Automatic annotation (TrEMBL):
The protein's name: Amino acid decarboxylase
GO molecular function annotation: carboxy-lyase activity; pyridoxal phosphate binding
BP term (GO), one: amino acid metabolic process
Sites bearing N6-(pyridoxal phosphate)lysine, chain numbering: 317
PROSITE patterns: DDC_GAD_HDC_YDC
Organism field: Roseisolibacter agri
Keywords noted in UniProt: Decarboxylase, Lyase, Pyridoxal phosphate
Gene3D superfamilies, per database record: 3.90.1150.170, Type I PLP-dependent aspartate aminotransferase-like (Major domain)
Cofactor: pyridoxal 5'-phosphate
Top-level lineage group: Bacteria
Protein family (similarity comment): Belongs to the group II decarboxylase family.
Amino acid sequence: MTTPRAPHEETFDPRTPEEWAAFRTLAVRMVDDMLTHLADLPAQPTWRPMPDAVRAALAGQPVPRAGIGAEAAYADFVAQVMPYPNGNLHPRFWGWVEGTGTPLGMMADMLAAGLNPHLAGFDHAPALVEHQVVAWMGELLGMPGASGVLLPGGTMASTIGLAVARHAKARELGRDTRALGMQAWPDAAAPAPMVFYGSSETHGWARKAAELMGLGDRAFRRVPVDAEYRIDVRALRAMIAEDRAAGLAPFCVVGTAGTVNTGATDDLTAVADVCRDEGLWFHVDGAFGALVHLSETLRPIVAGMERADSLGFDLHKWGSLPIECACVLVRDPALHHAAFAAPASYLASMTRGLAVGGLPFADRGLDLTRGFKALKAWMSLRADGVDKLARLIEQNVAQTRHLVARIAAHPELELLAPAPLNIACFRYVPDGMSEPERDALNEELLLRLQERGIAVPSSTVLHGRFALRVANVNHRTRRADLDALVDAVLLIGAELARPSAVEAIP
Ligand SMILES: *Cc1c(COP(=O)(O)O)cnc(C)c1O
């Protein structure tokens, strides 16, 4: 600050006190505009399609060789980007499983980016914050003392868990997968194909992980589900026995706490028993459902989760933190470390200075340079408290029960699957229509709900039938928002079932 910068010495910082003042004014306006955006959400449509002019402005522009300045770049953001996100902040957004974020989480992400620390490890306060968040999560979710690391999403969290499982179980079988991978080398015994299990309702991360890890999709054994969409534990035991008889090497069972389609939770105690009896690793995908454990009243739903060897879950879904924030916990810290630690001379730990303690987070996954995702978790949990998060989860479950009751009360609405948690799958069923016609009607109904900005459910297919799917991880939703959805479904459903009624709808 004391030595003035020569005009030819470039920097991305403002260069003079005047430039700093101007940037400060712009920065304050950015914060102000975004807070206004958040405060005004309920009055806005849930989603608005992009006008063609905006589409054109955002595509095919020449590479900006010379800058237009922060003011102009920000003005373009305000005009072209800010009005057209996917709507997941809105109180009537229940599509897929997308978290809503929070104002405090947003500010924490800004602070994290401002501080911009390197979270491979190192001996600095941000690292202690992440260690603290991981320790809290272990304690809160029934895995005290577990090793953990924050990750971008549940896909990565469960993939890391599965990778630890593979390494640990292969070692028991006498194979070092870190050295040999899954390949048959001429000078080493050919490995039995390693296979793992999960229900047919397991999220798509399992397939990606199997492919990435060189196991192949074939190694993911999809176990049938019962009428409640939970893994059929007898079928699981039978498949393991058959696979062993066929010379395969089972290594892991994935149980799901909160399936993506219907919010079902496997009988995790029974799955844990299978894993104990068979010597298999027990991984739980609790992308959104793991946090149910925070609620004393709902905890029985995920009983058995606390017996997991590893647990992957999101904080950006039901935890309401801004995307991206997820976590993997591994019960045995030594096994977690053994699966990923990769010492290098340029990353060596020192006895003093900044590199004390090495790079513990880099040793728990694939990432080396990592951002300060822990800050939003740490600040939000401290500011609001875990009890409030538990109450919000209970609120979403109660709201979903309310929605289910409204569906049950109306003869033209049909619930298509049990709704044990926060997901309801249903459809509009007018008399005198074939199943294909009903599918087509409900698909059009969904699109009209979205395009008119009324609400955003997403869809799925259950037993071959097209379903409107409401997944409620939304802390902004009120009961009245779900009532508005039901009213709109009935109205649009009638409009579609009786084309003559279309003119009557504005
Ligand atoms: C969302 C989800 C995932 C994937 O998590 P991402 O954060 O989207 O990567 C995995 N499993 C289940 C059950 C999910 O709902």
